[in-house]
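Subject: for your reference before the review

Hello V.,

The reviewers asked for a structural picture of the protein, and I figured it would be easier to keep everything in one thread rather than splitting it across files. Below is the amino acid sequence we used in the manuscript, unchanged from the supplementary table.
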Amino acid sequence: MGILLYIEPGTGSMLFTILIGLIGAGVYAFRMLILKFRFFLSGGKKVADDGERLPLVIFSDNKRYWNIFEPVCRELDRRGTEVVYMTASPDDPALNSPFEHVKGEFIGEGNRAFARLNFLKADIVLSTTPGLDVYQWKRSRDVKWYVHILHAASEVTLYRSFGLDYYDAVFTSGKFQEDDIRALEKMRGLPEKELVRAGIPYMDEMKARLEKAEPMERNRITVLLAPTWGPEGILSKYGDSIIDELIKTGYDLIIRPHPQSFVSETELLDRLMGKYPETDVLKWNRDSDNFDVLRKADIMISDFSGVLFDYTLVYDKPVVYTATEIDKSLYDAWWLGGKTWTEKVLPELGKELKFEDIPMLKDIIDECLNNESYSEGRESVRSQCWDSMGKGSVKVVDYLLSKMEELDK
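And here is what came back from the structure prediction:
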């Protein structure tokens, strides 16, 4: 009997989506019926809909995105704008935000959070979560405008297919992102979104913090290994061999796995952390704030993790990156074909590491540390992906307040 009642996760997600759609249509129809009835009883006079409409909602599906929204919230608070910050993390820092005009609200995890959002009444919803109106998160009929803000400096096409299609506006940081969005819209026959070149508020914040920080004492070269998670991540593909070779370099080594690795790759991490325990020259790092570890490292080894751009562009240091074999059929990049922007610019930022090159890793690190051309490359890449440096939050809030005024009319 237990087997007969089993529903595999994909089917369950689909059934949940259908159920939410049916419930949403029913709730909306019932609400309209009540309004029409009240209109009839009032003798044809206009009646107000019940329920509070929120002017501005920020939605975050994970606490790790607080760094994306914090500088925006600070600017909104400075201007006295009321914000409801809805989060799917019960321990999100936003729930204890110091900002007077930002109200944090935990709306449940997973499907419970999406169920709340699907019936939301608001003028504007700002989020960094892709897949609106594609998966469980549906556009509410009572939300006027959905705005997406990116959580990395790289392209938008490495979202899962249709990730941004049903947003009304997107904050971008470079022309290459806008070109890709327009190409996808044209290909799919979608109306053009409002694209707002607003820069990267969270990187502005990192840069300002770095400029104020006291110089860090450094006696030895420090290498930071900061992979993403999954089968194409460095620890999954090269784990033992790359760690062995990094230890041989004689440099200090910090290994900072992606937070999701501690959830999805516990067996791998338990094995590696057991085999390579901490010593005077090897540290495992999982600080919630990566500021100090990024500042301490002289060079980063990563793959296609977004932190690679944070590190090289903000801290102005070189990187070593691994060749990736992403199945692009899952992503918007597949629809456009060719190389992504990231694939094109990575050689300007550092050296590619292939499996057969691991025995020469120390030479590769030394070359990156001493090659001045990578400094010029970083400047070139910044000009492409970090527009309005230092003004990101102001530009984001300018747009939101202008759009709120426009929608209110």
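For the response letter, the relevant points are probably these. Residues 1-11, 27-32, 34-50 have pLDDT under 50 and may be disordered. The CA atoms of residues 203 and 289 lie 14 Å apart.

Happy to draft the paragraph if you're swamped.

O.
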